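Run UPF0391 membrane protein CWI71_01385 through structure prediction, thanks.
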Amino acid sequence: MLRWALIFLVIAIIAAILGFSGIAGAAAEIAKIIFYIFIILLLLSVVLGLVGRGRPPK
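Sure, done. The structure for UPF0391 membrane protein CWI71_01385 is below.
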């Protein structure tokens, strides 16, 4: 998943260089969406990791 985030980051940087027009603008929007999805997944995994620590191993 981190690989995809880095790929979209590169696409977003290229889009910024090209001026956020046409296809470059669409790629930047996709990169923003993917970024927010990964932030949510990161927070979810951190919360679940902290909750799971309190339980004794089976």
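The chain has a mean pLDDT of 76.
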